[in-house]
Amino acid sequence: MPLQKEVVIIIKPTEMWVGNEKAPVTLMEWGEYESEECAKANEVVKQILEKYGDKIRFQFRHFPLTKIHQRSLKASESAVAAGQTGKFWEMHNILFQNRRNLGTTSLKLYSREAGISDKNFLDNLVNGTYGWQVQDDIKEGIGRGVKELPAFFVNDEPLGVKPTFDNLSKAIDSALRKSKKKPAVKKRA
User: Fold this and answer.
1) pTM for this one?
2) Bridge partners of 7?
3) Residue ranges of the domains in the chain?
4) C-alpha–C-alpha distance, residues 107 and 142, integer Å
């Protein structure tokens, strides 16, 4: 009798977000964990989430620049692995706090700090189990024209300016105004 292979459902980065699922504004960032600019943007995003509450949802997408940051790919994979246990955002923030020390052994330690008890975490990381999800993010980012990090989109529109608190707030306020001005559905006679 042939062995049945276990089917494992992987939660993709496109399904990992924080905030209100039905928010009128989606803030999306393409970034990586070794970048100083992305770490600064992460702090701005925390302030934005606090300011806008249920009016927005935020999604982080992976775009590791492996030519200049060799450890960024495994760091991204570790965040996706953390997301499988519901600990993506905890791991996400820990990775930014420790962006200068992202070796594989350190990533395993950070997983414990994030509250992950998956005994296969290190094996999955070493074996590249979540590499395809990171590659999918990179492909989508390239398709959207991402060239520099961090790259932000507000309701699928590129931000186009430095992601400061003021610039993000203006873009979100504009998107909120547009969402309130949706055309009324005409009734047929």
Assistant:
1) 0.89
2) none
3) 25-177
4) 27
Residue 11 has a pLDDT of 78
* Mean pLDDT, range 48-63, rounded to an integer: 97
Three-state DSSP at 157 gives: strand
CA 110 to chain centre: 17
Q: Enumerate the H helices of the chain as residue ranges.
A: 36-52, 72-83, 88-97, 104-113, 121-126, 131-143, 165-180
Q: What is the mean pLDDT of the chain?
A: 92
Tell me the pLDDT tens digit for each residue of 135-169: 999 999 999 999 999 999 999 999 999 999 999 99
Which tokens sit at 84?
């499988």
The pLDDT of residue 145: 97
Q: DSSP for 84-123, please give it.
A: TTT-HHHHHHHHHHTTT---HHHHHHHHHHTT---TTHHH
Domain 25-177: give its CATH superfamily: Glutaredoxin (3.40.30.10)
Under a CB-based contact definition with an 8 Å cutoff, are residues 27 and 168 in contact?
yes
* b/e sequence 177-189, b meaning 16+ C-beta within 10 Å: eeeeeeeeeeeee
The Cα 139–Cα 71 span in angstroms is: 19
